[in-house]
Amino acid sequence: QVQLVESGGGLVQPGGSLTLSCAASESIVDFTYVSWYRQSPWKQREFVATLFRDRTTNYADSVRGRFSVSRDDAKNTGYLQMNSLKSEDTAVYSCKVYSPTYNSYYWGQGTQVTVSS
User: Which residues have a Cβ under 8 Å from the Cβ of 92 and sit 6 or more positions away?
Assistant: First the structure.
């Protein structure tokens, strides 16, 4: 089983930045991808970004150019760097990985990001 622990959420003013972390209990390079999703009370869960094992990336149109994904293999941690934050970015952000070892998806517990003045 894979465990994911997220951190880095908080309150930030519009235009500010935050970096979310997703620490995995196993080698992050073994995952097919590390993805980020978000959900707010007034929206269904939506895709934010993906970092594939080969380090290619994919972003939702709403965050492209403002958010970036990365990982630190030595720390088994994935990151979501969020810049130029807007009020509409307010949501609970969760990471998701796919492990081919276990042939299963795993989710983190989520971390709240609130963008407000």
Answer: 38, 39, 40, 110, 111, 112, 113
The strand ranges marked E within 1-117 are 4-7, 10-12, 18-24, 33-39, 46-52, 57-59, 67-72, 77-82, 91-99, 104-107, 111-115
Pair type for strands 18-24 and 91-99: unpaired
pLDDT tens for the chain, 117 residues long, are: 899 999 999 999 999 999 999 999 999 999 999 999 999 988 899 999 999 999 999 999 999 999 999 999 999 999 999 999 999 999 999 999 999 999 999 999 999 999 999
Nearest to residue 81, comparing CAs of 92, 91, 96, 71? 71
